[in-house]
Design a protein that fits this description.
Length: about 250
């Protein structure tokens, strides 16, 4: 890497850490032991094909372009840092950004599923953020569903020839919000409301997270856009290696 690229990565890390000065709270990842065993197994099995596809994609990417490991590692570090920041909500819960949109835009959603699993394991073991029994559910919401929505929206914007910066912002923001929609559904399936069932329970969970998550999604969209712009300015060669196409 050149000196400019090293300074860029260091600056991104510092900015991410600076945004993390918040009081500790129970994170939005589904906590250890909160889901019934059958749900834990089902969500874990559902994530397996995505993880396998992601592993093969990473192996192919690194075989063709070994230098891409820098951006891949940066994407994983970004997910770990930004998704570890716990933001207390006025509703008594808390939320956090996901950081998966950045990797999905650069490498595709399957690659992010592998990065997400690694991040969630470290967070569960080192930070008590989420849990090992709920790893499958947390992986599906944050590292599968969210990234696929991000990638789909980004590609759709490209086909519509939308402004590139707007495409990155919209994709990252909506991918973040969709992660929480999926998590709310997961919780609702496990704990349906006595009056109204799964639908009513999902609405209640969404209402708990929305006040904090909507502004956080906007912040994540802006931050992801800023990082992509910086990379296009200082790491064009690395972006070309992974097939990323900037503004024509």
């Amino acid at each position: 890497m050149t000196r400019k690229q090293k300074k860029l990565i260091a600056g991104i890390t510092v900015c991410s850490l600076m945004t993390g000065i918040y009081p500790a709270a129970n994170a939005m990842h589904i906590m250890e032991g909160y889901l019934p065993v059958t749900f834990c197994i089902a969500w874990g099995v559902l994530c397996l094909p995505f993880a396998a596809a992601g592993f093969l994609k990473i192996k192919k990417t690194l075989a063709e372009n070994p230098r891409a490991v820098t951006l891949l590692a940066m994407s994983g570090a970004f997910i770990f840092v930004i998704s570890s920041l716990k933001i207390p909500s006025v509703t008594g819960s808390c939320s956090h950004m996901t950081g998966t949109g950045f990797g999905a835009i650069l490498f595709g959603p399957c690659t992010v599923s592998v990065l997400g699993i690694i991040v969630l394991v470290f967070q569960a073991v080192l930070l008590a953020h989420g849990g090992l029994t709920t790893l499958g559910a947390n992986t599906f919401s944050m590292a599968v569903a969210g990234p696929f929505v991000t990638y789909g929206i980004y590609k759709l914007c490209q086909k519509c020839r939308a402004n590139r910066k707007a495409a990155v912002f919209l994709a990252a923001s909506l991918g973040d919000l969709f992660t929480y929609c999926v998590t709310s559904v997961q919780l609702a399936l496990a704990y349906p409301s006595e009056s109204g069932g799964i639908a009513a329970s999902a609405v209640k969970f969404l209402g708990v997270f929305a006040p904090t998550q909507i502004p956080l999604a906007i912040v994540e969209g802006l931050l992801t856009t800023a990082i992509v712009i910086c990379l296009e300015a200082f790491a064009k060669s690395e972006l070309k290696l992974i097939g990323y196409k900037g503004e024509a």
